[in-house]
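From the pipeline queue, job 12 of 40. The input is one protein chain; the requested action is below.

Action: predict structure.
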Amino acid sequence: MRSRALPGRGQGQSPSLSSACGASHQESQNVERLQNKVAVITGGCSGIGLATTELFLAEGASVLVADVQDDRGAELEARFQGRVKFRHCDVTSEADIAGAMQAAVDHFSGLDLLFNNAGAGGSPLMLEEMTGEAWDRTQSLLLRSVALGMRYAIPHMRARGGGAIVNTASIAGLQAGFARIAYSVAKAGVIHLTKTAAAELARYNIRVNAICPGYILTSIFTASTGISGAAADGANAALRQIAPHAQPIHAAGSPEHIARACLYLICPEAEFVTGTHLVVDGGMTIGPRSSWDPEAPSAIRDVLVKARASSTPAV
């Protein structure tokens, strides 16, 4: 399907953001799927949030970007004049969250869509080292903020006759081994919060779904471990090298992959989808690496191969 150039960029600068909503080829060329819709995107100044902001704009939405990166927010407003409104928002502050939702209504006259995406890596402490303060800070950033984002979006969406919400969870919320415990538990909470919120909000024609990204190339890995400057640049370069080999699909996960999944869940073609989570991980959670990588060690497989080689053929 044909990619649409992003507003504010030259044609040659536009990333390949193909249609995500399952419409016909002719429709994908002529219809902006989010035309006349107003979206709030938290953490919309960088990474997954920025890619989603750009894609929503390309699909016709107006976007209230809620973030703490004031300089980048000002740049977005200048780049997409009249289409983007920036609002400083620390998602650990209930007042900031409520203010961001109200700002969308004040500036664009309504609120239809919400992408609860802001976050970071959370506490790096293991459970035996954990403090109550570190635990609470992570849950406030990654779980409480999602609940409050929905809470303050609901009345505005009800006033419009309904809406759609997407929450960023993680494969770390599905099983152990992908992140530290505070982050993983918070993301598991987002998955269940999404399901229970969908049950409550269906009566208002508000759909709620979650996305579980896998290994996506953003700054979260270095930022959450306190790496900065030249060291961060070096680490990010190394991560880009290994990313295509981290999962069965041999490609690096990008913010645009998550943006397209978010577009699918939030646009009208997904009107019969609510209360679920979409895993976008290149197959990382299919099974252990030995299940898809023939070069990966597998103790059980090695034992069986050796036993078969030394066994006496049946007569």
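Job complete. Confidence is low (pLDDT under 50) at residues 1-19, 23-28.
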